[in-house]
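User: I'm curious whether this sequence folds into something compact or stays loose and floppy. Could you predict its structure so I can see for myself?
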Amino acid sequence: MTKADIIEAIYQKIGYSKKDAADLVELIFNTIKDTLAKGEKIKISGFGNFVVRDKKARTGRNPQTGDAIKITARRVLTFKPSQVLRADVNVTDGATPDGSKKAD
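Assistant: Here's the prediction. I'll summarize afterward.
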């Protein structure tokens, strides 16, 4: 799914104009991006958590040559899905979100 697909879904389901839907999606993504850039955590109930973590500089190895290389300190973005999202993603045919089989 792309950003354009999300805009189209908002246009279809909510009835906003495509421009309004695009502005809404851009606003949401920019808010998320700006919040994460400040190093703050984002928790979306029923979806998951986005967290920025600082990784220290360390020594690594070049897998081709085996030479030691310096890996610089950096920030990494992690996402941990909520239990609700995990259950929804792991639903198989004929099963309910809690993993039990549907009655016929």
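Summary: The chain has two domains: 1-38, 41-98. The first strand starts at residue 42 and ends at 44.
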